[in-house]
Specification:
Layout: E1 5-13, E2 20-28, E3 31-33, E4 41-44, E5 49-52, E6 54-59, H1 72-81, E7 84-89, H2 100-113, E8 117-122, H3 136-142, E9 146-147, H4 157-170, E10 174-176, H5 181-184, E11 189-190, H6 193-198, E12 202-203, H7 206-222, E13 226-228, H8 234-245, E14 250-254, H9 256-260, H10 282-294, E15 299-300, H11 309-312, H12 329-339, H13 345-351, H14 354-360, E16 375-385, E17 404-414, E18 417-421, H15 423-428
Parallel strand pairs: 1-4, 1-5, 6-7, 7-8, 8-9, 10-13, 11-12, 13-14, 14-15
Antiparallel strand pairs: 1-2, 2-3, 5-16, 16-17, 17-18
Helix pairs in contact: 1-2, 2-3, 4-7, 7-8, 8-10
The protein binds zinc ion.
Zinc ion is lined by residues 150-151, 177, 229-230.
Length: 429
């Protein structure tokens, strides 16, 4: 029997209904209910914002294969601490998630950890090699929520078309790491000012634009839902906006780091500023912010990519690509979008809930009675400073150490069960 709760006196923020008002939230049997339940425990939410739990459609947990950088359990707890109740894991583990057995393994480990609902994505091609399609129907039956060869694009246009035809039949979206491998070459930073200054090889924005354009045309011809992962270029953002305006089933995501940083912020040879695709120009960053503000980019996603500190310390040329993001996602995006750019707070929340849910074909998370009690209480008033040593993630590779943010999850509930409680909350419960 799960605990019943009365969450008193918070600011309720519901992206599904548009509710934004002071009030109480009642929870019984793992769901929101319309009146105070019997024998409920009380949570004082004065000064806090009560929202549905966030969905992150792009996380890397490194199990199986690199459990020293993140496991499904540690990643799940980092997600809960960040205010997430649902995550979509990427399939580029070792071995990769390209069989029904691997999909089931992900689900079983996540259930054992019990901190978050994990929706595994699975590979488009066997071993993500881009040569032969994986058993998409079998992967779907096992529980794959999306298909992607994340880490690489499927460069063979005809193969991608076949994948999208099958995916459309199954009703499963394709997510693409849209980057042409030939044009990207051995680049490590955006082909721009910082790469020149540091004497490092560049990745041109055209590498992304070319594949995004192809993917949009394939979405048009196959009817398959196509989601462009980690959009970084202003041209790509405009292509996606135009596709959405044409009524095509195309969506795009922006990450906190691409919204908060550009290559102008890379002042030293620091591996924590290396990710794929790279931080682009200040103008590209501005185009991404505009895309999130006007909803042509409807999804915020972290691309949480844990790596060993020893490898990240090798400098930009040799370090692996990627940064962690789950535990800084609310703080960085609330600061950049709401505090600095005046974004409507409900719209900000929609990019973390309604947008991802639509992509996954699920109902919009809500506080309304009957909804699953996946809830986050956030302090959106206090400033805090990112301190990686406090992360629950096994990896600390963030470009945001020491950064001042506003917005932080202080309590997370998954189906009415506590999955994260900050110090102040835990002492009151
Ligand atoms: Zn990627």
């Amino acid at each position: 029997m799960s605990t019943s709760w009365i969450v008193r006196n918070g600011t309720l923020l519901d992206p599904a209904t548009g509710v934004q008002e002071r009030g109480d939230l009642f929870i019984a049997d793992g769901h929101s209910v319309d009146s105070a339940p019997q024998r409920a425990r009380e949570i004082d939410a004065s000064g806090l914002t009560v929202m549905p739990g966030l969905i992150d459609v792009h996380v890397h947990f490194r199990e199986p294969g690199h459990e020293g950088t993140e496991t499904i359990a540690t990643g799940s707890h980092a997600a809960a601490r960040g205010g997430f109740t649902t995550v979509v894991t990427m399939p580029n583990t070792r071995p990769s998630v390209d069989t029904p057995e691997q999909v089931r393994f992900q689900l079983e480990r996540a259930a054992a950890a019990g901190a978050v609902e994990l929706l595994p994505s699975a590979c488009i091609t066997r071993e993500r090699r881009g040569g032969e399609l994986a058993d998409l129907a079998g992967l779907h039956r096992a529980g794959a929520a999306a298909f992607t060869d994340e880490g690489s694009t499927v460069a063979d246009d005809a193969l991608m078309q076949r994948a999208m035809e099958r995916s459309a039949e199954l009703g499963v979206p394709i997510m693409d790491h849209a980057l042409d491998p030939i044009l990207a070459g051995r680049g490590v930073l955006h082909d721009g000012e910082a790469a020149q200054r540091l004497g490092l090889p560049g990745i041109p924005a055209e590498a992304e634009d070319k594949i995004v354009a192809r993917d949009i045309e394939l979405a048009a011809s196959t009817g398959c839902a196509m989601h462009i992962q980690h959009v970084t270029s202003g041209t790509s953002a405009r292509l996606i906006a135009d596709a959405a305006a044409r009524g095509l089933p195309v969506s795009g995501e922006a990450t906190p780091h691409h919204l908060a940083l550009s290559d102008a912020d890379i002042t030293t040879d620091d591996g924590n500023f290396k990710m794929n695709p790279p931080l682009r120009s200040p103008a590209d960053r501005e185009a991404l912010i505009q895309g999130i503000l006007d909803d042509s980019l409807s999804v915020l996603a972290t691309d949480h990519a844990p790596h060993l500190e020893s490898l990240k310390a090798k400098g930009i040329l040799k370090a692996p690509f990627g940064v962690v993001g789950l535990e800084t996602a609310i703080g960085v995006t609330y600061q950049v979008l709401v505090v600095e750019r005046g974004m409507n707070v409900l719209d900000w929340l929609r990019r973390w809930t309604a947008g991802p849910a639509a992509l996954l074909g699920r109902p919009c998370p809500s506080l309304a009675p009957g909804s699953r009690a996946d809830i986050v209480l956030a302090d959106l008033q206090s400033e805090w400073v990112v301190n990686p040593s406090e992360f629950l993630s096994l990896s600390l590779n963030t470009p945001f150490a020491g950064r001042h943010c506003r917005g932080q999850a202080v309590l997370t509930l998954k189906s009415g069960r506590i999955t994260w409680a900050g110090v102040d909350m835990a002492s009151g419960l």
